[in-house]
Amino acid sequence: MMRLASLAVVLAYTAGLHWIYISLHTYGEMPAWLAALATLLLSLYVALYALGALALIRWLRLGTQQWAAPFVIAAVVTLAEWCRGTIFTGFPWLGLGYLAIDTPLAGYAPVVGVYGVGFLSVLAVMWAAQTIRHRSWPAFGTLLLVLAGGIGLGHHRFTESTGAPLKVALVQGAIEQSMKFDPNREAQALQTHLEIARPAAGPGGAHLIVFPETAMVRPWDLAPPDYREAFYRLTQTAGASVMLGLPLRDADGYRNSLIAIHESTPSGSFAARYDKHHLVPFGEFIPWGFRWFVDLMKMPLGDFQRGAKRQDPIAVRDQRIGVNICFEDLFGEEIIAPLSPEVPAAQQPTILLNISNLAWFGNTIALSQHLAISRMRAMETGRPMIRATNTGATAAIDHRGVVTDQIAFGGPGLLFAQVKGMQGITPYSRWGNLPVLAISLLFFVIGIALKARRA
To answer: pTM for this structure?
Structure first.
């Protein structure tokens, strides 16, 4: 039975991460056998945490009828998930909490975050199993109570609207990854982005126009003057602010960044910048000893410097935009850092913005997975999240995690949305993962004590 469970875990993670192969082989031009092996090894690494949790649960030998069994099992699984999201810079993709994003349990996200929702998901499954297998009415009643609590919390507002709504236009260029870094097609890609954005510059257009990650592939200071002038003209025509993703060159190296240009920004400069802090291993920084592996891929701009941990939000009219780039929105504990009680309310972001380029992974489940991740961050923080991506999912998400507008995957488009900024602090923004980790450690100790008592 344990072998079958282990095999199922490995297969599940391999299926959930199969899109890694596309980035390595199709676009990175790595040999197919090596790309497949690397994808399998990553899946095995990710699965190790779940397999370790299964082995630990088996070692504890909990009786399925024990009242503590669901709590101890949920604690072990949650601690394993947290370790996976933390060790070696963390890889929390495919976290259990995201599976519950459209269930009543998601109502707990503003209180306990994605790890807490995962904890409750395991509890729910265990109580359901006790109900079916042992006819345990206390387990059934507790399950109903927890689900009802999630529904109630889902209707509670931890944050409130602030300032005038912001009219945003989100650009999805659908630039093929194979042509994105082709210098002979760079001008064509830029023109595509600008043509898509043009309707946002008309009368009654957007207050903020956002282009995706690496909308420009050259650093701002190395781009031809006519490229830069095109964005200045757009701000002046629209009377709007423009944000776009691009690499920036500093004295110590390159950074994966976003810049903001306002109508009053002098030509040749930009008003504000955000530099990505949490970099992707192999894609944006090279772990020690793996230079040979990265050299096998055709992956430009693969060795960035980190941005600062704390960066101010970017003001646009009445709102303050908290930026994160692609992979960064997997880390809820980092997204809430600017929302801690120590940060004055006037310096906290009111709207979250994610820019991404998932064209590396084709039209796969990676796009839907990343959308679910952004929805969870919106729930945890009580803030709307807007997303501008190259191929999807370009979307507007409200403070409850509901997708209010979205562009279809894979094709070009311009998404207009009116976004209400939110202020206030959710319990998760205040306490982060500490409560669920403390509870998990407590029940893990209880599980060990119960085993020792039986011995």
So the answer is: 0.95
